[in-house]
Amino acid sequence: MAKPKPIIEIVTYGIHTKWDADAKALPKIKTFTNHIPLQLDIEFGFIVNIKRAKNQQVRYCIYHPDIPDEDGIAMPPFDGEEYIRSNDWDFYLGDTLWEPLHNKVGDWRMTLELNGSVIADKTFTVEDDLPYDGAQFWQRGKPKLRR
């Protein structure tokens, strides 16, 4: 009997609440977007739901703009592997921006592979300015002042 094919769905993508790696809860979506403002500690990425793939292994990779390490050499992409723990499994793949901010501008591509095939692929563009004038007006909550 053939093994059933996994069902993969990107549930959310964009700006999320702060993620706590020690907590079971995944971050909540704040804004669906591919354009990320250049802000310290902003959390962005996507949540994918995978069904019918328990005990299989996914490989994740975050390709960032050439961010230099302490020696000025571009860091390799962030990658790793994770086991699927249930037949209805949610996984968050994301990153945050840290000091210095000036070298974080550019495209951040995030991929997720299962059995050698890419099952989720999103590119986020970290921008010094928001995509159009007035975009901050529509953000909920108190306006953020730029320094």
Keywords:
globular; mainly beta; 46% strand; 147 residues; 5-stranded mixed beta sheet
SSE layout and pairing:
Layout: E1 7-16, E2 29-32, E3 35-37, E4 43-51, E5 57-63, E6 78-83, E7 88-96, E8 106-114, E9 117-127
Parallel strand pairs: 3-9
Antiparallel strand pairs: 1-2, 1-4, 4-7, 5-6, 5-8, 8-9
Would you give an account of this structure?
With 147 residues, the chain is mainly β. Helices cover 0% and strands 46% of the residues. The protein has strands at residues 7-16, 29-32, 35-37, 43-51, 57-63, 78-83, 88-96, 106-114, 117-127. The strands form two sheets. Strands 3-9-8-5-6 form a five-stranded mixed β-sheet, with no helix packed on it. The chain is globular and about 55 Å long. It starts with 6 loop residues before the first strand and ends in a 20-residue tail after the last strand. The model has no long low-confidence stretch (mean pLDDT 88).
